[in-house]
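Forwarding these from the shared drive since the link keeps breaking.
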Amino acid sequence: MHAPTSAKGRGRRRALLGAVAAIGAAVLLAGCSTSSGASSAGGDYEKAAKDTKATLTYAVWDENQVKAIKANLEGFNEEYPDIKVNVDVTPFASYWTKLQTQGSSNTLPDVFWMNGPNFQLYAANGKLAPITGEVEAGAIDPAKYSSALNDLYTYDKTQYGVPKDFDTIGVWMNKALFEKAGVAMPSKDWTWDDFQKTGAELSEKLTADGAYGAAGGMDGQTTYYDTIFQAGGNVIDADGTKSEYDTAAAEAGLQFWTDLIASGASPSIKQLTDTTADQWFTSGKLAMYQGGSWFRSALTGTDLEKDVVVYPLPKGKEQATVIHGVSNVVSANTKNKAAAQALQVYLASKQAQQQQGDMGAVIPAYEGTQSAFTKTMPDADLQVFLDAVDYAKPLPVSKNTAAWNTLETNLLPSAFDGSTPVDDVAKQLAQKMDAALTKEQ
């Protein structure tokens, strides 16, 4: 089968960073040589005057969310008509390389998106302004957000990021392809074996259409992290100091994807490198896409929007999914601190996050606003993503996550394509990951 034409990257993909990012992290650290570490200054806060004049840059990575962001900014400008905000969109694949270059020269955007894998690196090197002052002034109430998300953006007992959303993983199902293949939709109470068999049957019956039943890939958050957790394993230990890839459970989680590809249920790793799983799905060439809740925004206005239903991830030894959330942070070196904090505060408000949910951009982080997200596709059962919080596991991270994400990217393809036994790759990955984690201490 041939891959569909590659399209622009979708959503907040977490195909985490690659070799360039690991180099970029080193550049960022080198550029912080004059910093004393985590920012102790920057905790001050004074509410911006209504007539404040400033021009801010707000850096993000998801084109699909720009419409909702601009709607937020209209509300912000009702309060601050003279603060102009330029939205700078950089695709996720190059977002961190760009940000790390800006970090090394102290030219970071005034306000920007931050994720869990990169947060500790920026916080530890004094690149982010704490939200302490905003919290003390009552402008931001951390109690309105999940404690897990607050903790994710806290470093050395100081919080820097305000959660804007959260995401979990589910299986997006193209009902039309199931019907075309003559394959019955499985039960939502399904298992690994059900997923494997359904994927293989779909691929066999859709061969003439150049379509597949399911897809693996190199995005850990949406694929192998989930199955490792479902097998009862972990990627990294609780202290963040040792890899757990060389365990039977982790190996079982990896083997799931090797088996899926070997059976023909999924495109090959080479095909998925050229054209990612989400692109196969939006091209109508994939029946089951294991992806995040953020993918909903990629379906807006497409033919697929009315033909999709969401399933929980299949159950392994246990039920599990990865949970993560993005935050808004302010640069410690912004020249427009009051204006930047005003934007951060507004984006943290119930009004702004409710609007994000109403427009189906994301699942908002603010307490009590999540149900709006499910109503944007009432027949798709987006409630699956909210229910998944009950059995979710935090995205694995450390101070320099990029270093071992690079190892995953370099080593795991040979396990998934079957050229090297999974246990051999897992042991090699664990050894190299342990060495990388030692350097963080």
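-- next protein --
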Amino acid sequence: MSTVFSEIDFHRQGKQVGFAHLPLSAHTDAWGTIAMPLTVIANGSGPTVLITGGIHGDEYEGPIIINELIRNLTPDQVQGRLILLPCANTPALRASMRVSPLDNKNLARVFPGNPWGTPTEQIAAWIHETIFPLCDFYIDLHSGGSSLFIEESAQVVVTEELDPQVRERSEAMARAFGATLTVVTNNMGDPRTSCGAAANLGLPAIAAEMGWNGSVSPHGVRRTRAAVTRVLNHLGVISAEVVPAEPSRQVFIPAGGNLLSPGDGWFEPLHDIGDEVSAGELAGWLHRLTEPHAQPQAVHFPQGGCIYSQRTFGATAQGNSLAVLVQDLNPKEQA
């Protein structure tokens, strides 16, 4: 049973704009809560679609577009139900951090959560136990945040147990979304993301990456607005004139596709995101800037492919991700 409570009635027709409250007994507020914005717009029969933003608190395009929907949509424009959660990790968003300042946890790495755990774990448990069961489809809006340059993409999370029909519905959502890349992924083996948890429940879902570097991209906002409208139109929950999606390149992250820093230092990349590289090609130089006589260390790509993401920070520690590669998905290959 979740500790989160709300005045919002998920089953009421019409438009409700309010908050969900997570109790938090802090030094400055013994009986207070974390207020998380929550809106439900329902009209008649039709699919229930959940859209979340702010899973990471340094990613802003999603919250901006979800709040636009909250302000602009009226019940008569909806056929079914929209559940809109623009700031899922509200403490992290207020701090402009990927992780929550309350417990230093990443909401995208704690699903299915724990209703009696830390604040971040409780938020995940509320979404997983209370909201997911109400939904027919799920859209999770991300960007690269502070540490990543990343190609515009819609991710489809797959597992060995995933119903093929659920995968096809998710891939159809990704096609309607119309991002440059559709990344079919198993989250590098980590099931604790929101879309990984949704996949385990058989809930069709996509996770979008529509910006980078902890900033607000005008291009990213425009593309997110158009893409979300297309998906909602595709699912039948709204009826809107849309610009047709361009074909999306379907790719996957191969084994060894995550280039990890071999040591501490400052990394000088020699390529940009979107570049095609070969296995063994020089990726860049790892410098020891405080040791002027030290020769830079050559860092090579272990795999070939397209550079999907790249670290924004020059400084790096051993084990940090410097770049992630994707390869074209062959129907005979497993993601």
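The mean pLDDT is 95. Residues 5-251 form a domain with the Aminopeptidase fold (CATH 3.40.630.10).

- D.
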